[in-house]
Structures are given as structure tokens and as C-alpha cells.
Amino acid sequence: MIIAICKNCGTKKWGAFNQCKHCGFEPKIENELAESMFLTDHYFDKNTLKEISLAFQAGKSPKIDKHKKY
């Protein structure tokens, strides 16, 4: 199963396109679906996903290094 981070609240969830059980956000439009897919363990290791999660929870945009291989 895909580990994902909710792009709305930063909570860990199962499946990129599933509704977040914490805040209720469910990606529906194209850019939400793309961003949600990007915030998964397909693209980031668990430690990086945790950093992204903490950034969202703090109300900040996560810093993603385009040149780093995840």
C-alpha cells in the first residue's frame, strides 16, 4: 500500500488519492491529484516524508531539493 502525506494537513495516510481521515481532504482536480501522488513513498523515503509532513503541520511549504535522488 502507498504511504502518502495529506497535502492539506500533513497527516500520514494510506493511498495518495484517498480521503484524509484527519482533515477530510480528498484530491479531486488534476493538480491536487498530481501533488498528492508526488507526496508518496514512490518518490520519497520515509524520513523525507516525515520532514514534509512536519512542514505542512507547521503551516510551511516543504523544501524539496530537485537535485537530490530520493
Give a verbal description of the structure:
The chain is α+β, with helices and mostly antiparallel strands and 70 residues long. The chain has one domain (3-57). It contains two helices and two strands. The protein has a two-stranded antiparallel ribbon with strand order 1-2. A hairpin with a 6-residue loop joins strand 1 and strand 2. It starts with a strand and ends in a 13-residue tail after the last helix.
Q: Whole-number radius of gyration? A: 11 Å
Q: Considering DSSP H and I runs of 4 or more, what fraction of the residues is helical? A: 25-40%
DSSP E strands, number: 2
Q: Approximately what portion of the residues adopt beta-strand conformation? A: 5-15%
- Tell me the number of structural domains: 1
Judging from the principal axes of the Cα atoms, what is the shape?
globular
Main sheet attributes: strand count, strand direction, barrel closure: 2 strands, antiparallel
- How far apart are the termini? 18 Å
Strand order, sheet with most strands: 1-2
Counting helices, strands and paired strands, the structural category is alpha+beta
Q: DSSP helix count?
A: 2
